[in-house]
Amino acid sequence: MRWYPLILLAASGSLTPAHAESLPDWLKVDGFGTIGILYADDPIATVRTDGRNSSGAQNETRYDQDSVLGLQLTVRPEGPFNAGFQLISKKNSEATHRPRVQWAYLGWEPNSSVHMKVGRAVAPVFALSDVNDVHYSQITAQPPNSVYANNSVTYNDGLTGTWEHTFGSDKLTVEGYAGKTNIDTSRLFIDVPRQAGLSLSWNRDALTLRGGYSYARAVVGIPPGGTIDQFFKITRAAQGLGLCSNCEAFIDHQLKLNGTTNHVSSLGLTWDDGANVVQAEWAQRTSDSAILSGSAGWYVTLARRWGAFTPYLMFSAIKPVAEPINLKLTPPARPTASQTAILNALEGANASNFTGQFHRRQQALGLRWDLYRNLALKLQWDTYKIDNPLWGSATVVTFPQGPQSKFDGRVNTYSLNLDFLF
Amino acid sequence: MNNTLRRSMIWPLLLLTLTCFVPSHAELVVVVGAGSTVSTLSKEQLIDLYLRRLKDFPGSNDTATPLIYNSGPLRSEFLQNVLGRSDAQVKAIWARYTFTGKAQAPRTVENPEEVKQLLAAHPKMIGYLNRGDVDASVKVVLVP
């Protein structure tokens, strides 16, 4: 359904200056977007810049990685109430660009310090969560995925609140949320019936420090016939055939699908004095299910503005944080071919710690060029280095598992993005 | 005067002549409506209001609505010399607030008359003018 972005674009036709001026003061229509081109140079590994994208780039140029179109309607009449509605069209896990409702809330501002929202609003898990898809407002081509692909929660259906207070030249902002959400990635369908989070940020002049904590209780759905579904079947078969002494217990305790508990902690620092920018963030996600294998990631972005040009460097890494898996295999003296296949699969699970061996380092070199009003062109070269190219996998870089894999653990990607606001 | 000397004087004289015809640098002043309770602002407070680090006027609970020219030299001068940010930087900062519903971007205006009309009608608004455009409907709170 490639015509969805066109519909949004057509709707944005009402945003020409003539139309915008005819809108009353209390009604505002804004939009943003990116036309993104990404080339990945590896013939074996696949790179996707967003874990919710059904497709990735494998030795090819793709236009569906960072490309996005968003349209927002904001209603702010006189008085304490306001409302917002935002639609986003972006390649999703169903391989369509069907617009999703990103925000749909009713807001209440009893005074200038407090803003409460009921409905769908941002879940401020990380520093850039609230503008995850508004690439124009970021220096790099896409949010650094060592942290941002760590947790795909973007919105909260429920209650969100912000409290801001200024003490002299210091500003303190507290944001909290409670509600539910869901995440559809290319591998899993995750329903989160209960989530909550709190973040604190402190700003003085060019410096902002931020800390956040989020909790989510999730129900994980796996695609029938997919890799994980097959693994469940193999593991149960192994137990039934007497090839494994603790497979049943492993499924029950370490491969939980219902009621998994997940915690995300994050710390961030931003320095932006107008010319120099340093942005750094660290985040750790822990989970009591190996399906949602925990991880810890960080990034540091360094940038310098020279007029319309902003060259930048980004360094980042991600590593697993997961309980070790130790499937106790009991192979017969003369295994059959099918038994050997099952045993190999289970040995693979032990070797990979199920999905856990995804130590990955990433460096990026890029240039942002503010070439025209509301238009920014970004060129970015990313190098990925996966430490364990036989048994590692993550949402961003995926590749065949096992000794037969010829992947050398290195991938380069080249992005050319045009970001715009309207 | 030999030819070489004459030629060497042509360019400086030409530049001097041209300089006399370029209008002198207009003085930008920051203004609020005559009915506003705000009487003075520091440059840092002004920057904080325009970059949304401050939401309210200092010492009050009145949420400020900044005005900014849609285009023209006064917009460029204000962004570069007062806020110390490029157009793109300011847009990027405001996009973070706009697309989360946390605040509206500064309201754009087209000319000094519109600035004065809005400030006269809305005491919570703040804008800027050339000093020559200041009249009794507004008061100057900062000369950056």
TrEMBL record, chain A:
Q: By its UniProt entry, which SUPFAM superfamilies does this protein fall under?
A: Porins
* Originating species: Parachitinimonas caeni
Q: Which residues form the signal peptide?
A: 1-20
Keywords (A to Z) from UniProt: Signal
Which top-level group of life is the source organism from?
Bacteria
Annotated protein name in UniProt: Porin
UniProtKB/TrEMBL annotation, chain B:
Q: Which SUPFAM superfamilies match?
A: Periplasmic binding protein-like II
Superkingdom of origin: Bacteria
The protein's name is: Phosphate ABC transporter substrate-binding protein
